Amino acid sequence: MNINNIQLKNIKTQQNIILQSIFNLVSNSTLKSAQTQQITKTLVKTVTAIEEICFNKQATPANLSRSSRQIYSWMKFLTDEVNLQLHLESTCCMQQIARKMLIKHREESVKLMIEFTSFALLYKVKRSGDAAHIIVNEGFINASEEVLTALVESALFGRNQDNTRLIRSFASSEEYSNVLLELDLIAEVIAENPQGKFYNLNDLFDKLNREYFAATLAKPRLAWSQINTYRKFGHYEPARDRVVISLTLDNGSVPEFVSEFVLYHELLHKYHGTNWVQGRRMVHTKEFRASESQFKLYKEASTWLEKLATGQTSKRRHF
Asked: pLDDT-based confidence at 276, cuts 50/70/90?
């Protein structure tokens, strides 16, 4: 077997079992902790088994085939308690919205299945007789009830301009892209070597810690990674206490203060933590933006990042 293309035969079946368990749980109106724990246990057991298979082949999950790696990353993503809770709540919300819509349209006999998963589309629906299967991109687990309603209505009764605008607007948001990036990073091989060709993340951290945090911030794990510049220049993973910075910035043509600024931005995520507002995860609060603007070359660094982003396929700047 090619070590760079390890195909797991039953992984899709296992994913379908988990998805059905999730939908069965949310369909019972209350999210019972015992059943949630059972889903977590199944996820952890499956993820561990996959990692053991890879280890026995002297490989990592990054060596899985694309389809197997995508499902593995999705399962690993849901082993995080916060991610699973968001996933369950969004599935529950969509299920309730869909039921109300079907009753309103006198189609209450329709057998419904709703799943959030990792795939290339924003959403899709399979209609067959009295059955409707709605599949939604995992990126929407942070979406508001308004956006979830737009997804349900579009899937069950066809698109309209307002719903399409709502869906596409959220799909271009940071909440959406953060989930996609986290999924992308899970199976990626990262040596976690802070030493790049041009810049050392340990050195940059020490400098920033002294200048902006009075040398009081505990050092997270620091790593360079080949992340697509058009989407992200950096990312902070709270569950792993890890900051990952795009190798795009480890370049002699990019001034050191630009890499510093991106690292500083990610360290602010660690420093300020996550706030929850009306059930939604908020990371870029007023306090966060105020701290960010304290960076001594804020405007210059922002201009540089805009130039780098415009050189790719998107003009949007994300961290």
From this structure: low
